[in-house]
Specification:
heterodimer, A: about 120 residues, rod-shaped, B: about 325 residues, alpha+beta, five-stranded mixed β-sheet, about 10% strand
């Protein structure tokens, strides 16, 4: 009976190890995505800031899951975090490039409206 | 066999249940987000990203079909929704960048157009300037030539005393040649003489003032009237013999401007005269009407309408009081 218990425990441990190792690469990738979003200033663009915040929360959640040994679940949460960070980055860029384009269009309009010198 | 049937039935029931189970919020959101991204104006510009979002959604849909509403189904749908949001944002970014580029090109094109319009305008202005300068120069040359012709013509006339004064070219005709004593009717000899003058002046653009003078014999009033009538007679003759009416004015100065001593007979003869004044000099300041020192000659409010040529009438010729206060103002018939 004692032997059976040992075999059971070992198989559980082995099974867990074999199916879900610690997702170190995934973690690094998600962290890099969050950093990129921060670098383009996602905190300062409202819709992007929300996704960035969520991504950070998900990173924390994933770290906790890894500490608890639930690597499989952690991997999915890290995928969520990366997707949120990526969305934050693209939303931030959109806002910036749009604003820049708008300024340029207005400047051109002003230039065209202003009378050329000497006429 | 019976057990197998039951198992199969359970599986079918499960499949039906799975199909019928409501898709999770994440999946519904992902579908909507994908539609939104695929329909966005920048979708074509971010086609690879939109395609990746679609693959992500397909994966979530498959997971849902296979396993129903599970945690991983929700994860995949959640990720698919974010991919769609990111793809749409990327398309919009590229669209905005494109618009900026177009605006810059537009501005550059506009600048070039402006510059070329400005160059063209500058060229036209320069051309006009050159043309008007040439025109002015040729007009000036024409005036100089006309004056020269007049001067040449006048020198050919006999018995004519012409001299250049500040008020213009002054041609003096002796009164005895033109009129009988106390008369203002032109003598036949005078007409001949004036015909020559008219021919000489015909081509000249300058305006002409005929100024009549008398000696000091007789009353001031009578002399003033006589000089005015004589000047008028000369003017009438000139305009009826080819000079434009508007070009000639007549003016009587009476005895106010002697050129010689009235005590001697010779002096009086010199004072009885008619002056034909070609006003100003066309070749000089182009009729800028310089005030003449002797502009008192031109009494009375003269409205020299219809003057021709460059020469302004006796510059500054407005109501200068006569030096000797008690004297009568010279009269002048208004032209027309």
């Amino acid at each position: 009976m004692k032997t059976m218990a040992w075999i059971g425990a070992a198989s559980v441990v082995l099974g867990a190890c074999a199916s879900s190792p610690v997702p170190a690469d995934r973690l690094a990738q998600s962290q890099a995505a969050v950093r990129s979003a921060q670098e383009v200033g996602a905190e300062r663009v409202p819709p992007a800031a929300l996704h960035l915040k969520v991504a950070n929360e998900e990173l924390q959640q994933a770290r906790k899951l890894i500490a608890d040994g639930d690597n499989k679940r952690a991997e999915y949460i890290l995928l969520r975090a990366e997707a949120d960070a990526d969305a934050a980055l693209n939303l931030a860029r959109e806002a910036q490039v749009r604003a820049d384009a708008q300024r340029t269009v207005e400047e051109v309009q002003r230039l065209k409206n202003s009378r050329p010198e000497g006429s | 066999m019976k057990a197998l049937t039951i198992t199969a039935g359970a599986a079918i029931a499960c499949m039906i249940a799975g199909c019928a189970s409501k898709p999770p919020t994440e999946l519904r959101n992902a579908r909507a987000a994908y539609q939104d991204a695929a329909m966005s104006p920048g979708a074509n510009l971010a086609a690879p990203d939109v395609y990746e979002a679609k693959k992500s959604l397909t994966l979530a849909e498959k997971k849902f079909n296979d396993d129903g509403d599970e945690a991983e189904t929700r994860d995949l749908a959640y990720i698919a929704e974010r991919r769609a949001i990111a793809a749409k944002a990327k398309g919009n970014t590229m669209l905005a960048a494109q618009q900026k580029q177009l605006a810059i090109q537009d501005a550059e094109q506009w600048r070039q157009q402006q510059a070329s319009a400005m160059r063209q305008q500058l060229g036209q202005t320069k051309e006009q300037l050159e043309r008007s300068q040439q025109q002015l120069e040729s007009e000036r040359q024409a005036r100089v030539a006309a004056e020269q012709r007049t001067a040449d013509a006048l020198t050919r006339l006999q018995g004519m005393n012409a001299r250049q004064e500040a008020r213009g070219l002054v041609l003096t005709l002796s009164g005895s040649v033109l009129f009988g004593f106390g008369k203002s009717t032109l003598l036949p000899t005078a007409q001949k003489r004036l015909d020559g003058v008219i021919v000489a002046l015909k081509e000249d653009p300058r305006s002409i003032t005929i100024v009549g003078h008398t000696d000091a014999v007789g009353s001031d009033d009578a002399n003033m009237q006589l000089s005015q009538k004589r000047a008028e007679a000369v003017r009438m003759y000139m305009i009826t013999h080819g000079l434009p009416e508007g070009r000639v004015i007549a003016q009587g100065m009476g005895e106010t401007q002697p050129v010689a001593d009235n005590k001697s007979a010779e002096g009086r003869a010199n004072n009885r005269r008619v002056e034909i004044v070609l006003n100003g000099s066309a070749s000089g300041d182009q009729g800028q009407g310089q005030p003449m020192p002797g502009s008192g000659q031109q009494g009375g409010g003269q409205q020299g309408g219809g003057q021709q040529g460059g020469g302004t009438m006796q510059g500054g010729g407005m109501q200068q009081p006569q030096p000797s206060g008690g004297q009568q103002q010279p009269q002048q018939r208004p032209i027309k």
